[in-house]
């Protein structure tokens, strides 16, 4: 019995000391995932594209260069701007003062908007998810006379920006 009393006393002592030594801690972990916003040009003209045209396609004609659209994971609209390195003129590759249409400029047509020399036009879309549609140029007639041999070119830059 003496042994049982000692054992019982030891058990009670250990139980009460465990309670006195008990400690606790906790933490909250919030998990966040961030997806960056994007907007892309899509269609046959997305990326860096070269559009070789014949003389007939730029002699008083409207010519489709390809298709262009937009896609985005943002809410809201997009603005599309078109700019030209040579002010909407086809410049000779050797003689920088020579243009295929003389002093006349061609016009870019896209999404119901017209982009041309001297007009800082912006096409505002209500959504940034527009299927690809035609982008074309309307060229003036090539002036009569001798056209100097060479390559006549211009570079258009199409920029899409979320609103």
Structural description of this entry:
The chain has 163 residues and is mainly beta. It is built from 1 helix and 10 strands. It has a 5-stranded antiparallel β-sheet with strand order 1-2-8-5-6, with no helix packed on it. Strands 7-3-10 form a 3-stranded antiparallel β-sheet, with no helix packed on it. The protein has a two-stranded antiparallel sheet with strand order 4-9. A hairpin with a 2-residue loop joins strand 5 and strand 6. The longest helix has 20 residues, at 2-21. The radius of gyration is 35 Å and the shape is rod-shaped. The termini are far apart. The mean pLDDT is 90.
Describe the structure using short key phrases.
163 residues; mainly beta; five-stranded antiparallel sheet; three-stranded antiparallel sheet; 1 helix; 33% strand
At a glance:
The protein is mainly beta and 163 residues long.
SSE map:
Blueprint: H1 2-21, E1 39-42, E2 62-72, E3 78-84, E4 91-92, E5 107-110, E6 113-115, E7 122-125, E8 130-138, E9 152-153, E10 156-162
Antiparallel strand pairs: 1-2, 2-8, 3-7, 3-10, 4-9, 5-6, 5-8
Q: Which residues sit in consecutive blocks of at least 5 with pLDDT less than 50?
A: none
As a whole number of angstroms, the C-alpha radius of gyration is 35 Å
Averaged pLDDT: 90
Shape: rod-shaped
Give me the count of strands. Answer: 10
Largest pleated sheet:
5 strands, antiparallel
- Tally of alpha and pi helices: 1
Computed structural class: mainly beta
Work out the helicity level. Answer: 10-25%
Strand coverage percent: 25-35%
Distance between the termini: 88 Å
Order of helices and strands: HEEEEEEEEEE
Strand order of the largest sheet: 1-2-8-5-6
């Amino acid at each position: 019995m003496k042994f049982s009393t000692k054992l019982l006393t030891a058990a009670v002592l250990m139980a009460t000391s465990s309670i006195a030594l008990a400690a606790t801690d906790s933490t909250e972990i919030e998990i966040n995932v961030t997806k960056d916003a994007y907007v892309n040009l899509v269609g046959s003209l997305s990326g860096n594209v070269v559009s070789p045209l014949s003389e007939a396609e730029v002699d008083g004609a409207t010519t489709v260069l390809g298709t262009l659209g937009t896609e985005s994971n943002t809410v809201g609209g997009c603005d599309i701007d078109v700019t030209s390195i040579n002010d909407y003129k086809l410049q000779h590759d050797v003689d920088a003062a020579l243009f295929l249409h003389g002093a006349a400029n061609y016009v870019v047509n896209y999404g119901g908007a017209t982009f041309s020399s001297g007009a800082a036009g912006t096409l505002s879309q209500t959504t940034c998810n527009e299927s690809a549609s035609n982008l074309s140029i309307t060229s003036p007639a090539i002036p009569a006379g001798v056209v100097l041999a060479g390559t006549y070119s211009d570079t258009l830059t199409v920029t899409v920006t979320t609103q």
